[in-house]
Structure formats: C-alpha cells, structure tokens
Amino acid sequence: MAKLALLSVSDKTGLVDFATALVRQHGYTLLSTGGTAKLLADAKLPVTEVSQHTGFPEIMEGRVKTLHPKIHGGLLCRRDKPGHLEEARRNGIELIDLVVVNLYPFEQTVAKPGVHFEEAIENIDIGGPSMLRSAAKNHESVTVVCDPDDYTPVLEAMAVEQTAPARLADLRRRLALKVFQRTAAYDRSE
Asked: What angle in degrees, to the nearest 10, is found between the helix axes of 165-188 and 127-137?
C-alpha cells in the first residue's frame, strides 16, 4: 500500500524539493489542495487533489475542503487498533502517513495597517489547524510538519528509518509538540 502525504501550505518555501524527495526516494503518493497542488503539478510531480480523494468538491469559496472523514479518519486512525483499521477499510478511508501544513498568514494580515475586518476573518485558518492537530494527536503513526525548516530533519530520519526507527519516532514527538505550540500561538493572535 502506498504511503500518503498530504501537503497544503501557504509558505511554499522548499516544498517542491521536499515533495520530490518524498515521491522519488520514499515512495509517497501526494495529496494536496489549491495552489499547493498546482505548484506540485507544475513541477511535474504526481499529485491528487483532496477533492478527488474525498469525492467531495471544495465549497464555500474554499472554506471547506479538508474537513472530511476521509482526511481526518486517515489522520486519526490508530494503526495499533484492529477496530480502527477495520472501520477505515469499511469506509474507504486511506491512511495518511505525513502531513505538511503551514497556516494562513493571519498574524501578518491583522498586523497590516488599515486591514479590513473581512480580510482578517478570511485569513483565519480552520482546516489547517484541524489537520495539524489530528496528525499531531496520532504522531506515533503520522509525521506532521508545520515549518519548512523541518523538511531536512524529516528526510534524514526517513533515510535511516529501517536501521534507526527510534530516530523518526523521537522526531515525530518533537514535531507534534511544535504543532501544538504553533496552533496555540495562532489561536492567541489578535
């Protein structure tokens, strides 16, 4: 079974190189949304749009695209629980092994002089924090990345996963903590 990586970022720094390594060196299949999917496709990487994966279109001007059981079930399914795995199978939910999400730039938007309330509201990320938190909650099985600076450590840990699995497990714990710190800071933004 192919490993799935879900990539949906506003800061696209280093993403193409990271995604290329995921596909070519580690055998991942890529899922993505909007501009991120376009960037990956333009780089000639095979990518499946989330709406194709879920069978449900993006709606409400993109406000709803990743809030779907095929996404969150794929992130939250405990791989050590046969009941979870059976429910995933029965419901056509593929497991997602890696998530790369960085959030809409809400902090930068509200810091701009004269920003309109409507613009600030539309830059509140809902799906991103939800995916990050789901993946971080299940960090024993899912690698979660919210910062482009972590692409290299993730690839390095994956490169030695067969001989040093504890390295990836330790990194996953640290990345999960980073996600919870990031989403908490995001929620405190004014």
From this structure: 140
